[in-house]
Design a protein that fits this description.
Elements lengths: L1 H23 L6 H12 L6 H9 L3 E10 L3 E9 L5 E7 L4 E4 H14 L8 H11 L8 E8 L4 E6 L4
Antiparallel strand pairs: 1-2, 1-5, 2-3, 3-4, 5-6
Length: 165
């Protein structure tokens, strides 16, 4: 009989301890429970067409077109261009990673990359190619490289390379 009483007492005590733990303190939510709230609060603001135009005005280029081909018919294409009608075109076709983006989604990815570039009208071909591949994190084993840039003053330069050294 003493054993039953002791077991009952231990069981009741366990239930009380469990109950007290939940009463006075709130349990912290798990990471999974926090994720939806955090994602909404930390979502990167998408650019509006006006924001995109303003940002493009800060670049040295009004047009940036990149096409890099790789063995196996894989290609990376990127375009960022300010049109004379006051719009911005942004496109990414990345067959290497099976990614295709247009509009603000492409702009949000391309603009920071193009902004990092230091290519000028005096930059030589090898330097331009190396800088673009590094900035865009593209493989160096391309079969064809084509870059066209139009500067704010209307000057257009093109860097082509049909064979990788």
């Amino acid at each position: 009989m003493k054993k039953i009483g002791a077991l009952s007492f231990a069981g009741a005590l366990s239930l009380m301890l469990i109950g007290c733990g939940a009463d006075g303190q709130k349990e912290k939510p798990t990471a999974k429970e926090e994720t939806p709230v955090d994602v909404k609060e930390e979502t990167i603001k998408e650019e509006t067409p006006a924001d995109m135009l303003q940002n493009m005005d800060e670049l040295d280029y009004v047009e940036f077109e990149l096409e890099v081909e790789y063995a196996g018919d894989h290609e990376y294409e990127a375009e960022l261009e300010t049109k004379s009608v006051g719009t911005v075109i942004a496109k990414i076709e990345d067959e290497l990673n099976h990614v295709r983006k247009d509009g603000t989604e492409a702009f949000d990815e391309l603009y920071p990359l193009v902004q990092k570039l230091t290519i000028t009208q005096q930059t030589n071909k090898d330097e331009a190619i190396a800088e673009v591949l590094k900035t865009f994190n593209l493989p160096t084993d391309y079969t064809k490289f084509d870059l066209e840039i139009t500067f704010n003053d209307g000057t257009k330069i093109e860097f082509d390379d049909k064979t990788n050294k």
